Amino acid sequence: VDRRDGKLALAYIYIAFIAVLLGGIAGLLQVLVRAGTLQLPSFLNYYQVLTVHGVLLGLVLTTFFIMGFQTAAVSRTSGTFTNKQRTIGWIGFWIATIGLVAAAAMILTNEASVLYTFYAPLQAHWVFYLGLALVIVGSWFTGLAQIMRFVQWKKEHKGQSTPLLSFMVVVNNFLWYVATLGVAIEVLFQLIPWSMGLVERVDVLLSRTLFWYFGHALVYFWLLPAYMIWYTIIPKIIGGKVFSDALAKLTFMLFLILSVPVGIHHQYTEPGIDPLWKFIQAVLTFFVVVPSLMTAFSMFATFELRGRELGAKGVFGWFKKLPWNDSRFLLPFIGMVAFIPGGAGGIVNASYQMNELIHNTIWVTGHFHLTVASAVALTFFGTAFWLIPHLNGRTLTKRANSMANCAGILWAIGMTIMSSAMHIAGLLGAPRRSDYSTYGGSEQAAEWLSYQIAQAVGGSILFIAILVITGLVIYVGFFAPKGEEDFPIAEVAPGAAKTPAAIENFKLWGVIMIAVIIFAYTIPIIDIISNSPLGAKGFRLW
Ligand code: HAS
């Protein structure tokens, strides 16, 4: 990657890791408070700490790492950015960073303890909403620069199949643009006027619906960069090839059309949305599982083909042939393993009736610590340790690699303890997002306590892992020996079929995407507005 593009990517990635450390501290405080072993000082409240944790890790780490990684990925596979493209990328970075500082200031002054989902009726200072809006607008700019570089590549290579990694980045950016429209409408037309006192009330159901239109696609915006790494980088690290360019591209297009029209599966328990539409979005949610199953298939195929090349025998012989000592592989691999129970839990959540059992319990927190905080986060960490030195002309030394492996193993141990305890306590009815409480000495609440202590044990191990990770980022960023670190990109396997042009046709998939979204959301939104207790005022435009 060209050094000038690398600087932009690094700027984003460093902010992501500051968020990891601060968000990790907030996480530690939380598990200790929930276990009843710590009382927060009077100037901090539980929901403020929970907001710091969710915003920094759920929104900042992800968005900033993704923008940094995608910039590097496009520069590596489509070519160096032009000055104009790079300037657009930097404008985005500064807009996002200013927004981040504004939002952080509001959270720190306890003016925005509204959690990372920030929908009404919790209300924050308008500067918080504006700050988050700027983070999104900033990412739009940097994403645009990535798309422009890809389009330039296409013009220069007419008729050729596009570079897989760049193609995936462009799909993820389109997904992001369409998804963020929902939250942009919510913030601009509901939350900001309401928090400024321009309107007295807003429709809460509409606010939540617009948020979840964005909120579930958001999780795929996090997941797809991890999939980019699994599909295009991991095969090279293990010495293999991409199993199929067509399958990988089709997987991403399926995410493009199916990620948005499923948000109502977060709202099964809410009155005001017709059960028919809940059911329809439940069905669509089961469709969006398919591209993940295709990914699992593709990863197994990649591992097995490489294993056989190295002489592996039997059904699982390939397992022994994988490069277990290489942190570039090990951390994402642990993430993949975590995604198996994480994904299975997602299917439980999506099942309309079973959702009744787990909704708003700490089971859900267990689910997303396996998905975003393991599958995605470990893939990002394992990548950062070689990507940072690649971008700044240093190397990932053997010792740093071993430390990275330790961090990955600590993460696996801590997360297994914490997230298993969360899943079990959730099934016993323990609520999520609640401070330590004995609930008036209730017998049922007493059952939860031992699991909350287990969560504190797991969470403390995770915090140690975060300290190691932070140390490693500082080391590879500023102290590792100068040298050249490779940015591995796998070639497509020679036997793979040529990718049909239709799979790469953005117009075709774009039309299908819009059609499915219109189908899934038009009637629910019309119903919400027309049944709003605020009448037409429920949807204020200004
Ligand atoms: Fe989810 C709630 C349904 C995936 C994140 N989810 C959440 C929340 C978050 C989140 C943050 O339907 C909480 C939001 C809040 O604050 O309220 N989720 C799903 C479904 C999937 C799913 C069906 N979620 C994710 C991903 C996330 C994420 C990915 C982040 C990155 N989720 C829900 C539902 C709720 C929910 C409901 C609302 C619950 C409620 O009531 O509040 C699916 O996409 C999952 C499909 C995945 C698979 C796994 C495939 C496995 C692979 C690994 C292969 C492994 C290999 C290694 C190759 C089917 C690809 C093998 C090696 C060996 C040695 C074995």
From TrEMBL:
The transmembrane segments are 9-33, 45-67, 88-108, 128-151, 163-192, 212-234, 246-264, 276-303, 329-348, 368-388, 409-429, 449-478, 508-529
Q: What's in the GO CC field?
A: membrane
Entry's Gene Ontology molecular function annotations: cytochrome-c oxidase activity; heme binding
Say which species the protein is native to.
Ureibacillus thermosphaericus
Arranged from A to Z, the UniProt key words for this protein are: Electron transport, Membrane, Respiratory chain, Transmembrane, Transmembrane helix, Transport
- This one is known as Cytochrome c oxidase subunit 1
The Cytochrome oxidase subunit I profile domain covers which part of the protein? 1-478
GO-annotated biological processes? aerobic respiration
